[in-house]
Specification:
globular, 2 domains, mainly alpha, 73% helix
Length: 186
């Protein structure tokens, strides 16, 4: 994997993107705006599912109205995220906070999938009061996990646990997949 990532990071496009005076900040800004659009609309849906906000509108109607914005934000977030990763793939691949962010995104998407699947199977017309507890739980999990995704994403900018800064504790090298010898890690 590391060989592929080193090749990818050595491509002309990757180097040009990382060194660009204009493309990099534009892509990073678009990523932040995509995250804001996506999470803003997810929060609206989650607050409705939890029964905290927008209670005059049926939950399925709120989710239906938010879907185009959620999908647009998600699309921008993924596209720009891939470009950011492409700019320096070895660094991001070995970054503990990047790994945490990807794991948390997986949990958040799985939570949404499982909840929407259960809601569809249990109630074809929308979320009924009978599944209010599971809706509240799914919303609480979603809000918590997406908040942690934002924190992990923000922490990617810091290189506290970077593989190229050695020595690192052995657990850091193991979790980050740092290519170091056993003698190099305390």
């Amino acid at each position: 994997m590391r060989g592929f990532l080193e090749w990818l990071g050595g491509t002309e496009g990757s180097r040009a993107l990382l060194e660009s005076q204009y493309a990099w900040p534009l892509i990073e800004s678009a990523h932040v705006m995509g995250v804001a659009l996506f999470l803003g609309t997810v929060i609206v849906g989650d607050l409705r599912l939890a029964g905290i906000g927008f209670t005059s509108i049926r939950p399925d109607e709120v989710l239906r109205r938010m879907r185009p914005f959620v999908l647009s934000g998600f699309g921008v977030m993924v596209l720009t995220g891939v470009l950011i990763f492409y700019s320096n793939p070895v660094r991001y691949y070995h970054d503990l906070f990047f790994r945490a962010k990807m794991g948390l995104i997986f949990v958040a998407v799985l939570n949404a999938f499982l909840f929407h699947r259960a809601a569809r199977l249990g109630n074809r017309g929308g979320v009924r009061p009978g599944i209010a507890v599971s809706a509240w739980g799914a919303a609480a999990i979603s809000l918590t996990v997406w908040a942690l995704v934002v924190v992990a994403g923000r922490l990617i900018a810091y290189n506290w646990f970077a593989c190229d800064i050695q020595p690192q504790p052995g657990w850091v090298n193991k979790l980050a997949g740092c290519p170091v010898t056993a003698a190099a890690s305390p």
